[in-house]
Amino acid sequence: MFLALETSLADVPTGAVAELRAFGIVEADIAAAFELQQKQRSCGVPVLPLAVICGVRPLERGTKTGLSHTASRLIGTKPRVRISRGGTHVTGRPVWANSVRTGDAAEAEFVRPVSFDQLKELRRAIHLMFERARDLAAEARQGGALTPEQHKLTLFTRSCRDMLLKIVDELRYRKGWCVPSYETLMRWTRLGRRTVKYSLDRLRELGLLEWIRRYDYTRDSQHGARSEQTSNLYRCHVPQWIGKMIGLFSPVPEDETQRRADSLEQHADMLASVGAIERRRLMPDDPAQRAALILAAERSAARQASDAYPRGCNNGTAPHTVLYSISTEKRSCPSRATIQP
């Protein structure tokens, strides 16, 4: 019926037309809604707003209309609820994918307790990161060229610093079991929910923070089995590239470097001397550690080969010259026979 109506907007108020166009309503629907208002005025029934007729705003309760039951139901229909990004558990409650059940062994494997010395080192690193990030941001504003890692560190803002300091303190206090909710983090840092979400994402991108999602599983005779998402489990550490950038790791002395190299060569020789089955059990799984052991074994073999190779002669001189004669040895021998006076 509305398609047959005239689509002129000359009599429609300009403000109403602009408001409806902002919601994506086409001119034909606006003209049809205005024509319906004219019909309502001529019939003496309550006139509905154009936004209600076009479905932009819901119909208020208690409003008397002259529309049919079908039209009233269509106008009063609420907008669709936003679909959740998470999945739905078998119990019917939304649960994030890859979530760990509370009390599972995966939780204990993920927890990393923080000692007092580690706490001091982490807090010092956090303050150094914030100062370095602020200097890099100022350099970038002045037109300086930054490397990708330096530009990435500029994301470490004041809110990230406050968030990480509080999480580190909780890791120390709770022996690695830091499970705050978003509301708890908002109360700790006095930040908004959106800022808390932004800070956690930035810390995760920098490699400073890790977490696993968890859910609670309950079961009773009245409601049956139920699963519900709960707070995450957090842990933190300073990546190596950030530690080098902020000067956290001091250079190792040369004597300590040599001692570590000798110890690694001895460990490689020990692994090479045992049987194949025992060697397979003792070899580390990390590719970097395996490569270091292999290089240490090569250095040890090269040094042993150079030590076993005889020295070359210099202008016909024997490698090991005899610096004392046989007669001298006989005279200095304490067990030789002496002449009696």
**Counted beta strands:** 5
Give the biggest sheet.
Answer: 3 strands, mixed
Radius of gyration: 40 Å
Beta fraction of the residues?
5-15%
Tally of domains: 3
> Helix count?
15
Ends apart, CA distance between termini: 152 Å
**Secondary-structure element order, N to C:** HHHHEEEHHHHHHEEHHHHH
Structural class: mainly alpha
Question: What is the share of helical residues?
Answer: 40-55%
Q: What strand order characterises the main sheet?
A: 3-4-5
Mean pLDDT: 77
Uncertain regions spanning at least 5 consecutive residues: 1-7
Overall, the morphology is elongated
Protein name: Helix-turn-helix domain-containing protein
Description:
It comes from Sphingobium psychrophilum. This is Helix-turn-helix domain-containing protein. It is elongated, with a radius of gyration of 40 Å. It has 341 residues and is mainly alpha-helical. Helix 12 packs across helix 14. A hairpin with a 5-residue loop joins strand 1 and strand 2 (94-95). It has a 3-stranded mixed beta sheet. The chain has a two-stranded antiparallel ribbon with strand order 1-2. It folds into 3 domains: 2-75, no CATH class; 88-246, no CATH class; 254-306. The chain has helices spanning 14-22, 27-43, 50-53, 69-75, 105-110, 116-141, 148-153, 158-173, 182-189, 193-205, 240-246, 254-273, 276-282, 287-308, 326-331; strands at residues 87-88, 94-95, 100-101, 209-220, 224-236. It starts with 13 loop residues before the first helix and ends in a 10-residue tail after the last helix. Helix content is 51%, strand content 9%.
